[in-house]
Amino acid sequence: MQTAQTIIKDYRRKRVIVCVTVALVTLVLTLGIRFISQRNINQDRIHDFTHHTVRALDKVLLSLEAQRETLLSLVGIPCSEANLILRKQAAILQTVRSIALIQDGILYCSSVFGSRNVPVSEFVPELPVSESRLLLLTDRWLVKGSPVLIQWSPLASDGNDGVMEVVNIDLITKMILEPQRPQITDVVLRVGDNFLRDGQQVTTTPTFDENASLLEQSSQHYP
């Protein structure tokens, strides 16, 4: 009789152990599957946000290119005739803070200030140049000390004549550089060797969290 009871107790104990083991394995598998699934969802969200950010900036810059020929045709025209057209174009584009015409390296007409006679290099030392250029700089002209994104379009191969468009970077950073927490904790715009975070100044030496995973997405139009 005692032997039978012992066998029954051992059986029940083993059955409990088996049931608990199966339950633990099921729980671990369920949590593992959920973790992997959530990780994949988070990665997809991060990639989607990155692609959306790059496309949004491309859309802004490509809209400027659509008006390039119209603006380049104004280079050489007296500012008294070109200024109204520049102001209208700046109003149409909306994302542009100002448009300036440069002839022989001299900024002679601005949509904001009208007629000028100042070497463009005083405001942007990198200009003029013979090829199209996208520059992320600190503004020395309109809102001094603030970040500024400049698109330069030369008229001829010598690069002394062209159009300089100053993009409203404050508007763009609010649209594309605000991180979507908790998956994304930081967003940085890089143009050339310069970097910009929303609400901060342009820098050449950005700092990142040592434990953070970094994802970089380049523009196909402005690599």
Automatic annotation (TrEMBL):
Keywords: Membrane, Transmembrane, Transmembrane helix. Residues 43-223 form the Putative cyclic diguanylate phosphodiesterase CSS motif-containing domain. It holds the Pfam family CSS-motif. The chain crosses the membrane at residues 16-36. InterPro entries: CSS-motif_dom. The keyword Transmembrane helix applies. It comes from the Bacteria. This is Cyclic diguanylate phosphodiesterase. It comes from Enterobacter hormaechei.
